[in-house]
Amino acid sequence: MVSRYIEPELTNHKILYKGKRYWVFEISKENPFENMEDVCSIIVFDKLCGGIAGYCNYKDDGTIVGDIPYSQQSIDIEGKDGREIAGLVDYWTKWIERTEK
Q1: How far is CA 5 from CA 44, 63, 94, in A?
Q2: Which phi-psi region, left, alpha or beta, contains residue 4 (left: φ > 0; alpha: ψ -120 to 50)?
Q3: Which residues contact 57 (CB under 8 A, 6 or more apart)?
Q4: Which has the higher per-residue pLDDT, 9 or 1?
Q5: Is the pLDDT of residue 2 over 70?
Q6: Got the DSSP string for 30-97?
């Protein structure tokens, strides 16, 4: 059986969370991803769509804050780790899908 999920092409990126659908990983100038390293330091990748589902940064206290692009705006998210961020992206993605029906 062929998987319908598309994994991101990563080299030495630090993986913060690897779920079935969402992966959360760090990016930098040394480990870039889709030219987003000037915008953020953490990517939430949606393997089902094969693209970026959210982009985040660390706060001084280690908390992760970021945005989920949505239409011409974005949804703010905040979590303590990659797993929580992936869960928030999943929640809001499902919310968007329900409200657009």
Answers
A1: 14, 28, 17
A2: alpha
A3: 40, 41, 42, 64, 65, 66
A4: 9
A5: no
A6: SS--TT-TTT-SEEEEETTTTEEEEEEEE-TTS-EEEEEEETTEEEEEEESSHHHHHHHHHHHHHHHH
Q: What percent of the chain has pLDDT over 90?
A: 85
pTM of the model: 0.92
Interval 15-36: pLDDT, tens: 999 999 999 999 999 999 999 9
C-alpha distances (whole Å) from 11 to each of 6, 32, 38, 73 are 16, 9, 18, 31
Q: How far is CA 42 from CA 1, 32, 75, in A?
A: 31, 10, 16
